[in-house]
Design a protein that fits this description.
Layout: H1 3-13, E1 18-22, H2 49-54, E2 58-62, H3 68-80, E3 83-86, H4 92-95, H5 100-106, E4 111-116, H6 135-141, H7 163-186, E5 190-195, H8 196-203, H9 205-214, E6 231-236, E7 239-244, H10 248-257, H11 272-277, H12 279-290, H13 295-302, E8 308-310, H14 314-319, H15 321-325, E9 329-332, E10 341-344, H16 368-374, H17 379-387
Parallel strand pairs: 1-2, 3-4, 4-5
Antiparallel strand pairs: 6-7, 7-8, 9-10
């Protein structure tokens, strides 16, 4: 739903030609809203905003892989492809007769990328290999939920975005790029295997070494940092701000701006170690000061002086000049809609080959004929495949 498409979106944003092979009727995530007024629904070949966001810059080919002729089409595509990415549970492609070993025979240079909840047995068989997995499962078992939430106790907290999908997707895109680099030089492709729970654990690396050293499992960290103080969220008169003091050199300008310069030399507060030992007291001192000012006032006081930022919601992001200047809010066509749809841009900026959103997500099967033509199919063959129900 999200992980595989997000990985290929990242590659498409950087210029890769990505052909999305959809089943008859189209990818079911086309149904996921919200929809702009007038936007075409899946029955009309269209898609909702969810699909639009993560399938930009891609082509759509509708292909029935359960039909022998459909499998033959895929094999012909694979002969010329650099990469194949699939996001099924382990064993699905093998049951279709299209597993890695089969495709590697067809194209030894092929990079075959997979993203599953608990990985592929080829690279280490998990006891959970057959379990279905979605974002909250990966967040729970990968360790990120266990350190997210209030220090005071209560249930663990799920992180808002689907990081259980998106983080592994980033690792998959990275792994594919690395494997392609090798394939270009050696002529040999390989199997790239990412487990969602592994990807989440990889970004929770701190809990691994902490537990290794202490034997104590880290718990929820609230809005602070276990090793630094002050570091996290603090109240403003009209919301919240985030500030971080990663070293003592930032403590001095902070307390000076607060009008409390004596705290810079007080042995109870002048070092990070001392502040961590008095975390509650330090956070109260900073919070009492910050709560007397608006976010705008704090921005004028702290911006550019110490690591600081106001907590933004989506409306704030749309209004802030940074995100427009950095092309992080991109307007795209939404077929049938009366106005463009704004989606998040790519954060990867390069001087010679800048990533960008070149075109909207595809209509259902929009590129079937053009794609097959590019891969050597004749018009007569394409017409026959369409008549036979293999392509749509």
């Amino acid at each position: 739903m999200l992980a595989g498409p997000y990985a290929t979106m990242m590659l498409a944003d950087q210029g890769a030609r990505v052909i999305k092979i959809e089943p008859p009727g189209g990818d079911l995530t086309r149904r996921n809203g919200p929809y702009l007024e007038g936007a075409l629904k899946i029955e009309q070949g269209g898609f909702g905003a969810y699909f639009a966001s993560i399938n930009r810059n891609k082509e759509s080919l509708i292909l029935d892989l359960k039909m022998p002729a459909g499998k033959e089409i895929l094999l012909q595509l694979v002969r010329k492809a650099d990469v194949l990415v699939e996001n099924f549970r382990a064993g699905v492609m093998e049951r279709l007769g299209l597993g890695y070993e089969v495709l590697a025979e067809v194209n030894p240079k092929l990079v075959y990328g997979t993203l599953r909840g608990f990985g592929d047995p080829r690279c280490g068989e998990s006891p959970y290999a057959k379990w279905p997995a979605y974002d909250p499962v990966a967040q729970a078992m990968g360790g990120i939920m266990g350190i997210t939430g209030p220090i005071s106790g209560g249930a663990p907290t799920k992180i808002g975005p689907g990081v259980g999908d998106i983080i592994p997707a980033m690792f998959l895109a990275f792994g594919i790029a690395a494997a392609c680099w090798r394939a270009q030089r050696s002529g040999k492709g390989q199997f790239v295997d990412i487990a969602m729970v592994d990807g989440v654990l990889a970004v929770c690396e701190r809990i691994v070494f902490q537990y290794s050293v202490s034997g104590v499992a880290p718990g929820p960290e609230g809005n602070g940092h276990p090793l630094l103080c002050p570091f996290g969220l603090f109240p403003a008169k009209d919301g919240y701000i985030s500030l971080g003091i990663p070293g003592d050199r930032f403590w001095v300008p902070l307390v000076t701006l607060m009008g409390r310069p004596e705290l810079a030399i007080d042995p109870r507060y002048c070092t990070n170690e001392a502040r961590v030992a008095r975390r509650t007291e330090v956070n109260e001192i900073v919070g009492e000061w910050s709560s007397r000012h608006t976010k705008k006032e704090l921005t004028e006081l702290l911006g550019g002086e110490i690591p600081f930022g106001p907590v933004f919601n989506a409306a704030d992001i749309f209004a802030d000049p940074h995100f427009r200047a950095r092309q992080m809010l991109v307007e795209t066509e939404q077929p049938g809609a009366t106005r463009p749809l704004t989606i998040a841009g790519t954060p990867v900026r390069m001087s010679e080959t800048p990533g960008q959103i070149r075109h909207r997500a595809p209509m259902t099967g929009e590129h079937t004929t053009a794609t097959l033509t590019d891969f050597g199919f004749t018009p007569q063959h394409i017409d026959q495949l369409r008549a036979d129900g293999v392509i749509h």
